[in-house]
Every structure is written in structure tokens, then in C-alpha cells.
């Protein structure tokens, strides 16, 4: 009986050792698994970061190949070309406010000191700039005649000599100018005459007629600054009485 008791004791001890070994082995396996999972996650994150860095590098190279971003003047010129092609959606007696929601207002409300456009563009500093008619400002261009008189292409020069902006009527600036043109290209003979007119903020247009009706051949000049800046304009020469167009030139500020 004592022998059986010893045998049973050894058996229980052996089972306890085996059980402890299994538990220890299980603990080691869980720790190893956790470490392996942690390593996997780190490697996966590193791989993801490397992949993102590669993508960012490729995008940077593509952006560099695209060149510099267009400046404000270039964007304004492109927008002006689109407007010239599509039209403003307003009749001649109104001007477009621009923006996402088209809106037409009277040009008499432009630059009057009050926001009449919902977006306030009618009082924008660029719209109300006096630069186009500053004293001494000169525009030149090669004029081509299509009607009224026979004339070879010649240089036309417009120089602003004075301006006045009445406080009670600020939508226009009244100007004085000298218009010169070559009569003979070979001899460089030039004729000049004094002109009067006004700058229309709303339409971005300079309109001039001879100060003396006997000068200038009865022709007036209308320059539309429709190219997104104050440095160039599309100009037309026409009869003052009938407004029939006779010639045209592209004017640039010098």
C-alpha cells in the first residue's frame, strides 16, 4: 500500500511538471507571437511610408515638369479672351459684374463709391483704376484701313494730355488727348490734332473725337480695353457722324 502511495505521488508530480511545462511553453508561444505581430506591423508601416514617399517624389517631379504657375496677368488675359468669345450676357447699356452668378448693372453705377454688384466688383480697385488715362500715358499701334479712305497702314499715336473726373459723376473721366498719325511713311510726315472724350470705367473704353470738327477727317477713335489689363486695347477708327468703322489698330502702352 505504501508502494502504491509513492507511485501515485510520483505520477502526480510528473503530471504537474508536464502541466507546468505546457503552460510555460504556451506563454513563450504567445510572447513570440506578439513580437512577430509587432515586427510585422512595423515592417508593413515602413513599407507603406516608403511607398508614400515614392508617390510624393513622383508628384513633385511631375509638378516641376509642369513649369511655373501662371501669374495674375496671364490668368486675367485668359479670362478676357473667354469673355470676348462668349460675350457678357448684357446689352450695350449694361455691364457684367462677373463672378459665379452673372449680374448686369448700368455703367453709370460703376465706380460711384457704392457696391451695386453683389460681389462688389463695380468698386474694385482694378476696375476703378485711373491708369489708362493718366496724364502722359501714350498708346501706339499700326492702323489698317478697310473703308472710308484709301490709306496705307500707318502708325497711330494717342497721348493723354489732361483729365477731369467730376465729383457728381464719377463713372466717367473726361479727357483731352493728342492723336498723331503718319501721313507719309517714307518722309515720316506726321499730322496731329487735339481730341476730347471720356474714359468709361464700366465698359473699359476710351472714346475720343476731334476737338475741332474740321480736323481728323471727321474720324473718332474708340479703344476697348478688353484684354484683361490696362496696357493694351483693340481700337477702332470710325466716322463721328455715323459711327461707321473705317479702320482698326491694336494699341499698346509705351
Automatic annotation (TrEMBL):
Transmembrane segments: none annotated. It comes from the Eukaryota. Keywords: Coiled coil, Disulfide bond, Signal. The keyword Signal applies. The keyword Coiled coil applies. Residues 1-27 form the signal peptide. Residues 42-69 form a coiled coil. Residues 132-253 form the Annelid erythrocruorin linker subunit C-terminal domain. This is Hemoglobin linker chain. It comes from Mesenchytraeus pedatus.
